[in-house]
Amino acid sequence: MIVPGLRCALLVAAAALFATVAVRAATKAPDARAEQLEDLAAFRQDFLAVDRSFSPSARAEAERRIRALERKAGDADGTRFVVDLCRVAALADNGHTHCQLESIPAPSVPIGFVVLRGEDYVLSAGAANADLLGARLAAVDGRPISMVRRAVRSLVGGLTAWRDVQTAGVYAGPDCCRPWASPIAGTGRSTVSSHPTAAPSSAN
User: Fold this and answer.
1) Average pLDDT over residues 34-45
2) Which of 13, 77, 138, 164 could form an SS bridge with 195, CB 3.0 to 4.6 Å?
3) Domain that holds residue 45
4) DSSP label at residue 65
5) What is the pLDDT of residue 56?
6) pLDDT of residue 199
7) What's the total number of domains in the chain?
8) Distance CA 105, CA 26 (A)
């Protein structure tokens, strides 16, 4: 049974199919193993078993990853667990089947990014960060954005450009970048640095 308030929604959408899998946002609770096993069972039964967008090889890989997650259930915190499920959903490799990235339980700052000509620029910001408007995202936690971007693309399927657009918003929560890939795992507090270069005009 899903307890309201303890889980954040992970919406996985395929053509004519919307399967909602609830995943717990609590971190390292005493019963985290049981909770994550319950979520994985729901993910397999309510999403993977009925979604038809996975190729045979992708479905086999998804099953392999779910079994791996079951073996280590309870070891990962809420952020890493949701990220791992997002990566499984992304194996469908299309523009329709993916999780809602805003469901990843990680702190964020009031800054919005937009992709222009393959780069991430600050599109919106609160008053305290207004000087960042138009700045280009250069790095996350000291790692070049090119390195981080390769890792976060695993959260969404489809064409590379589509993945970049869909994942642009996650850079506002750099703390959740750490679990996406070991090459970008940080040891201190994650930070976002921006190069003060004006965004290119969208006009031809």
Assistant:
1) 91
2) 138
3) 7-103
4) H
5) 95
6) 55
7) 2
8) 9
CB 69 within 8 A of CB 36: yes
Residue with tokens 């930070």: 191
Least confident of 21-25, 113-117, 142-146, 150-154: 21-25
Q: Provide the token pair at 20.
A: 């909602």
Half-sphere exposure of 8 (CA within 13 A, CB side): 18
**Residue whose structure tokens are 């995202």:** 137
User: Which residue, of 60, 84, 103, is where some domain finishes?
Assistant: 103
Which of 58, 83, 103 corresponds to the end of one domain?
Answer: 103
Dihedral angle over CA of 23, 29, 34, 35, nearest 10: -20
Q: What is the pLDDT of residue 165?
A: 92
Note whether 77 and 27 are within 8 A (CB): yes
Provide the token pair at 146: 């090119």
Average pLDDT over residues 105-112: 75
Under a CB-based contact definition with an 8 Å cutoff, are residues 21 and 102 in contact? no
Domain membership flag for residue 200? no
